[in-house]
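Input sequence (183 aa), recorded before submission:
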Amino acid sequence: MAYNIVTIAGSLRKDGFSLKIANALAKLAPASLKLEVITPAGISFFNQDLEGAPPADWLAFREKLKTSNGVLFVTPEYNRSIPGVLKNAIDVASRPYGKSSFLGKPVGIISNSPGPLGGVSAAKHLQTILPGISGPILQQPEIYLNGVGDAFDAEGNLTKDSLKTVLQQYIEAFAAHVAKNQG
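Predicted structure, token format:
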């Protein structure tokens, strides 16, 4: 049996590096994991006034998370933080209060950037946001991918061997994290 992992690529760009990395991870994942790659596209803005009758897109997103065995975030860094659409998705899934769809789910965090810092600030913000609304977060290895601008071919396939090695090591560690933290 494979564990179902919702893998959230944190931006809306159809050719974004986060989506390419998430898709590469799905191909590299061991047989014990089945990664479903999604983006925050189509998740309407969180508004607490709507909690009494939540929009269908909120309910569908929450249900996808609740029926998963874990969540993997792959995020770019926008202005030293995570993209607003990713924060919105987290806000939608974490509600209603005390009933977060992330509760008990093992979590992994991967940040990335074409620049030299690898999105470290975005990853640190997720590490600040998620405790209290999620399950256990994989602490080691930490992964901040820099220089991803030349890692993919025109079809979005991962071609940079050094990045492939790091992603392979991470997804194997994440698989062990998920297996260890199943109810």
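Checked by second reader. Residues 161-180 form the longest helix (20 residues).
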